[in-house]
């Protein structure tokens, strides 16, 4: 009998049912589309912060809602984050629920593909990065890195290939601020064409802000937010989409959810819903 690794999490069957209407179909065969089922999910404080500062890994979820996030990871083919999160958190981005691939089952079945949006390929990963440690241990998959560069650094390309990861070059708009803006529709179509039938976008702040813009929010099939009973205070990484205005120039809400359900989860509350599109 194989024993689960020490960091394995438990997420009981009894806690799973409520999530089902908010998740991609179990067998992956949703309506035929060139887009993957896309979930936006993150944990926030009472003052809408994801983290104490852009560079700070910050624990918000309690044990139960953390296990829920890992269950979500087992139900999606890919996890998307921005390079800011990769650099700040050195994340694992695997699923640590007992019974999932590497945590009790043979192979990597149930393990999502990490996808990092890194326009300039600035993430300096190495064998010591948590993601690659987990790959070596058979407990996670190598990342795909989405870049605007046509020819990323050959050493990085070779490194990723050794672990089974890769760069995917996509067109991005160059902003006057010097940054980049990805076309989310293009990205999601690309991910689907590479075999990801469902993706969950975890953050960070800049990624979520751009996805919640009027142009892209209709791409979201589901939104699942963990709210932790804490204020992080000023200077945090805040989730705050750009302002919107009506025809008369009056400010209106940037985005709103519909079909909302709230579920208490330990000391946290988990909010599930769908983006309400304007008529
Ligand atoms: N509480 C939670 O659930 C989560 C918290 N975090 C936290 O968020 C913080 C990082 O957030 P941010 O600094 O906002 O970084 P981020 O993770 O959003 O990455 C920002 C970078 O990603 C790229 N990027 C993002 N959106 C893009 C777009 N639309 N087009 C092209 N490139 C794009 C750009 O290179 C940008 O500089 C960290 O402290 C991390 O711990 C991250 C994920 C989840
Ligand atoms: N659900 C959730 N709760 C929190 O409190 C968090 N800080 C995050 N962060 C996200 O999870 C990633 C870390 O994952 P690993 O535990 O290393 O696998 C982090 O990079 C954020 O994407 N999420």
TrEMBL record:
Catalyzed chemical reaction(s): 2,5-diamino-6-(1-D-ribitylamino)pyrimidin-4(3H)-one 5'-phosphate + NADP(+) = 2,5-diamino-6-(1-D-ribosylamino)pyrimidin-4(3H)-one 5'-phosphate + NADPH + H(+); 2,5-diamino-6-(1-D-ribitylamino)pyrimidin-4(3H)-one 5'-phosphate + NAD(+) = 2,5-diamino-6-(1-D-ribosylamino)pyrimidin-4(3H)-one 5'-phosphate + NADH + H(+)
Alphabetical GO biological process terms: riboflavin biosynthetic process
Record EC number: 1.1.1.302
Region (Disordered) residue spans: 1-36
Segments of skewed composition (Polar residues): 26-36
Key word NADP present: yes
Domain Bacterial bifunctional deaminase-reductase C-terminal: 36-271
GO MF term (any one): 5-amino-6-(5-phosphoribosylamino)uracil reductase activity
Keyword check for Heme: no
Ranges of Basic and acidic residues composition bias in the record: 7-19
Keyword entries, A-Z: NADP, Oxidoreductase, Riboflavin biosynthesis
Pathway the protein takes part in: Cofactor biosynthesis; riboflavin biosynthesis
Purpose of the protein: Catalyzes an early step in riboflavin biosynthesis, the NADPH-dependent reduction of the ribose side chain of 2,5-diamino-6-ribosylamino-4(3H)-pyrimidinone 5'-phosphate, yielding 2,5-diamino-6-ribitylamino-4(3H)-pyrimidinone 5'-phosphate.
Protein family according to the UniProt entry: Belongs to the HTP reductase family.
Protein name, as recorded: 2,5-diamino-6-ribosylamino-4(3H)-pyrimidinone 5'-phosphate reductase
């Amino acid at each position: 009998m194989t024993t689960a690794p020490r960091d394995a999490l438990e997420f009981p069957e009894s806690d799973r049912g409520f999530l089902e209407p908010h998740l991609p179909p179990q067998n992956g065969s949703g309506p035929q589309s060139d887009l993957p089922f896309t979930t936006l999910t993150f944990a926030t404080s009472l003052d809408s912060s994801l983290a104490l500062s852009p560079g700070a890994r910050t624990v918000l979820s309690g044990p139960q809602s953390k296990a829920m996030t890992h269950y979500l990871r087992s139900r999606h083919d890919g996890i998307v984050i921005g390079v800011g999160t990769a650099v700040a958190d050195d994340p694992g981005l695997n699923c640590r629920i007992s019974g999932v691939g590497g945590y009790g089952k043979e192979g990597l079945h149930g393990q999502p593909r990490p996808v990092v949006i890194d326009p300039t390929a600035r993430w300096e990963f190495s064998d010591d990065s948590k993601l690659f440690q987990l790959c070596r241990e058979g407990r996670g998959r190598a990342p795909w890195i989405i870049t605007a560069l046509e020819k990323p650094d050959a050493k990085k390309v070779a490194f990723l290939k050794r672990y089974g990861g890769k760069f995917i070059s996509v067109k991005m708009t160059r902003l006057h601020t010097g940054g980049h803006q990805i076309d989310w529709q293009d990205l999601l179509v690309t991910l689907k064409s590479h075999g990801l039938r469902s993706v969950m976008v975890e953050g960070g702040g800049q990624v979520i802000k751009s996805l919640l813009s009027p142009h892209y929010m209709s791409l979201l099939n589901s939104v699942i937010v963990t709210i932790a009973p804490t204020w992080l205070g000023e200077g945090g990484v805040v989730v705050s989409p750009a302002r919107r205005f009506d025809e008369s120039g009056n400010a209106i809400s940037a985005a709103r959810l519909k079909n909302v359900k709230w579920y208490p989860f330990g000391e946290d509350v988990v909010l599930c819903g769908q983006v309400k599109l304007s008529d």
